[in-house]
Design a protein that fits this description.
Two copies of one chain form a homodimer. Chain A is built from twelve helices and twelve strands. The first copy, chain A, has 332 residues and is of the alpha/beta class. In chain A, the strands form two sheets. In chain A, strands 2-1-3-4-5-11 form a six-stranded parallel sheet, with helices on both faces. A six-stranded mixed sheet of chain A has the order 7-6-8-9-10-12, with helices on both faces. The longest helix of chain A is centred in the middle third of the chain and has 16 residues. Chain A binds a DNA duplex (30 and 30 nucleotides) through α2 and α4.
Chain lengths: 332, 332
Amino acid sequence: MPITIADVAARAKVSKTTVSRVLNGKGELDESTAARVRAVIDELGYVPSSRAVGLARGRTRVVAMLVPSLTWPWIGEVIQGAVDVLEAERYGLLLYTCNRGDESMRQFGAQVSAKSFDGLLVIEPEGTLDYIANLHRRGLPVVLIDDRDQISGEMPSVGTTNHDGAREAARHLLAVGRTRPLVITGPERFGCTQQRLAGFEAVFDEAGHPIPAERVHQGDFTYACGTQGVTKALESGKDFDAVFAHNDLSAIGAMQALLDSGRRIPQDIAVVGFDDIRNSAHTQPPLTTVHQPLREMGEAAARTLLAHFEGTPLPNRPTVIPTSFVTRASTE
Amino acid sequence: MPITIADVAARAKVSKTTVSRVLNGKGELDESTAARVRAVIDELGYVPSSRAVGLARGRTRVVAMLVPSLTWPWIGEVIQGAVDVLEAERYGLLLYTCNRGDESMRQFGAQVSAKSFDGLLVIEPEGTLDYIANLHRRGLPVVLIDDRDQISGEMPSVGTTNHDGAREAARHLLAVGRTRPLVITGPERFGCTQQRLAGFEAVFDEAGHPIPAERVHQGDFTYACGTQGVTKALESGKDFDAVFAHNDLSAIGAMQALLDSGRRIPQDIAVVGFDDIRNSAHTQPPLTTVHQPLREMGEAAARTLLAHFEGTPLPNRPTVIPTSFVTRASTE
DNA sequence: GTGTGGTATGGGAGCGCTTCCGTTTAGTTA
DNA sequence: TAACTAAACGGAAGCGCTCCCATACCACAC
């Protein structure tokens, strides 16, 4: 039989109220009784039931995180960042995926209505943004992470400098003498794709080497789109001296296709990725890339949410954590 | 103001009890009243508060998962498997990491005492096994995943065929004519390391090519240990025609060192890994490896736990899901 | 002695459900 | 027609906390 606050109260010869006060450190109470109660708590090994506390207080001290899939290599980093902050603040992290499509979202919605958690962290809510925005409007505290869609402003979010990161990549390529890059993008509808493309193109424009549309291959962040983009470009005889891929996975695919075709990296073609996933340092050759501060983004998102619980209003403009540029052998 | 069961009861002109019966489908009740109640529930969009249900029933419909770190590439797969099963059964998944050492465990222990969840899934509880075993003894349902330690039997667990998987790797290497493999192991204290080593050595023994201790390099599952193992072996002039690494990451490290030294893969040295992480298909050359059924392991563990909640006793012998062997260009 | 103002504590009504006992009603059966 | 039964439903006591609202006590002023 688990022990309850009543057991502690009885043993310490005080009321449950007093025990509760000791537990939560509020209300004025005599130090000697407090000490006595504390002693009993230790003696009995009493820990308040989170269920009961949750009901009584109306808050669960749990935040949910909705992620697209756990098998993308970078997602784990973001979660790790969030979980570190949450655990340190004694919050729990309930994990949901939208792996099973609408059914997932339906069940997730039920959890929201059931008030299973106090707030929500969302990674890249491809296709579910409207739904999330709706929850937000109904009062659920939400922080978006890396919202690749456009609708910033409506909900608080933390993101990174996609535009500037891509600019750096472009400047670097120019610096190592490349003027005719092939670009392999992410899905067109993603905000990050648009930003990365815009930033990259702008630099080449300014340098007097505008990138023609035929050298922009629309990809989808997969390994396959990287190989495909390069293969097609080679087949159609396009002239390019570098590849800028919108994520590392497709950059690795591109490298593979280049090597298969007998090109040397970086002598013939330089390759730059985006993300800096764990593996990028270990490719052959190691991949120059734009490092995304994934962990920091997870941390910032969690901190924003927790601050909101403490009363700080949710910021209405995105928190931006800058990328950094990592030079490796694939470009020099 | 959120609507409660009382609101529904009032609107449907029945008692809370009846609404509860409709909700949970138990007790006898007239189909017409049930329909009426259901209509009101829909109309009001009522969803029972999980907090209140949890308190009243004494169960949270949440299971916790304790993982060492989310940044290891394979952990995500296991979690994904578990989360898929749990979500389908309308359970939530509370994620904890033991990233911050003892402090993490202390807080985790508090959550256990607070009865924040009904059961626990643990991945590779390096160093925390005793603690977990203790919780298990005190009545917390626990299922271990890939317990790399020895203490099987005491707690239910799901694992894979480390021994047989390594045997297959060995047989494959022999089949492609390699008789002098270099082995790069995981940490010695891990059960999986011992099993993989034993299985691998046994096959070479049987084939009349016993592996001398000097060709076994103790590693730690990192990329670095792979490069190091190979580099040292080459420097000390050891004679080997293949590398068997106990995980893919170190295998990739080994490949890197081999290529750097001018060896060709697989012509000069064949390389086999263990895990089949996402990236292994995309290395240069693609890595032959022992595929671990990570996702399936996560699923099986979750299912075992849920079955236990339904009354099925926890199995006292490990659930074993076999590895499969994936042949790629690094060996032929 | 009455009044006033703290300070330390207790009582008990919730929080939103579940569930154990009834109680009511209608439908048998003798 | 009385007695009994089963089906359908309601009352209210929990579950283990929190927190508002007393209440008791004491010190000090008048």
